[in-house]
Amino acid sequence: MPRFLLERNVDGIIIAGKVNANLVEYIEALGLPMVLVDYEIPRKRVSTVLIDNRKGGQLATHHLITAGGHRNIGFIGGDVGHPSIRERLASFKQTMNENDCPIDKEFIVDDEPDTRVHNGYNAAERMLNGKKRPTAIFAANDAMAIGCLRYAKNRGMKVPDDLAIVGFDDIEMSSHVDPRLTTVRVFKEELGAHAVRRLLEAVQSKTQAVVTTHVPVELVVRESTGGTSGDDPSTPLD
């Protein structure tokens, strides 16, 4: 348990990313205002600031279908217990269905134990070594997308000619790999600003009103799906 909680020398707390439900219960028992960022716990009355993962999944998948002309699209991910990853996968499936694209279970690898570069590499190896393979992949985050890119290049595949790849998050590395990665941009500063605002409101009002805030995302098109050399934020879908 963090020392500052044991000593109760804070007025409130912001937790970013996946968190143990027991920790949330402990903070609740202390009566401290709390805000979760990029994570939510069902049936817990806690204010949250969330990425619009469903819109992001829609933008990424729709881009591959419309701009790239792809129909056989794969999804790689891990830790589907995390709400963000689960929502991105659900949005992928929904967008594929809405565009009458087949969803092949062999093109979905969602059981990697983590979402790091080597997990993306392993997931791509599993998916692309089958008798049939997708022409495009939507990765749950940029780290996995970069791992997928590395595997494709090691196998001699050309990106995006043989395989188009889209990531999620727009981490700094995504604009430095070759080819540069098309991805869904997450506005991390905005996530933080909303979280601080929600926490200050709770501390100052001495109430714990539950507020859920969704922060918009945007698609940034780069060379991994056939884009230009410069960042090209896509116009969000209605």
What is the makeup of the main sheet? 7 strands, mixed
User: Multimeric state of these chains?
Assistant: single chain
Order of helices and strands: HEHEEHEHEHEHEEHEEE
Question: Average pLDDT, to the nearest integer?
Answer: 91
Instruction: Choose one word for the global shape.
Output: elongated
Share of β-strand residues: 15-25%
- Measured as a percent range, the helix fraction is 25-40%
Side by side, the strands of the main sheet go 5-4-6-7-8-10-11
- Strand tally: 11
Measured distance between first and last alpha carbons: 44 Å
What is the class of the largest domain in the CATH system? Alpha Beta
Secondary structure class reads: alpha/beta
**CATH topology tier name of the largest domain:** Rossmann fold
Overall tally of structural domains: 2
CATH architecture annotation of the largest domain: 3-Layer(aba) Sandwich
The CATH superfamily of the largest domain is Response regulator
**Helical element count?**
7
Report low-confidence residues grouped into runs of 5 or more: none
What's the Cα radius of gyration? 19 Å
Describe the structure in your own words:
This protein folds into two domains: 3-51 and 186-217, Rossmann fold; 53-185 and 219-233, Response regulator (Rossmann fold, 3-Layer(aba) Sandwich), CATH 3.40.50.2300. It has seven helices and eleven strands. The protein has helices at 3-6, 21-30, 53-66, 83-98, 117-128, 142-154, 188-205, and strands at residues 13-16, 34-37, 47-51, 73-78, 108-112, 136-139, 164-169, 182-186, 212-215, 217-221, 232-233. The strands form two sheets. The protein has a seven-stranded mixed β-sheet, sandwiched between helices. A four-stranded parallel β-sheet has the order 1-2-3-9, sandwiched between helices. Helix 3 runs parallel beside helix 4 and helix 5 (117-128) crosses helix 6 (142-154). The chain starts with a helix and ends in a 5-residue tail after the last strand.
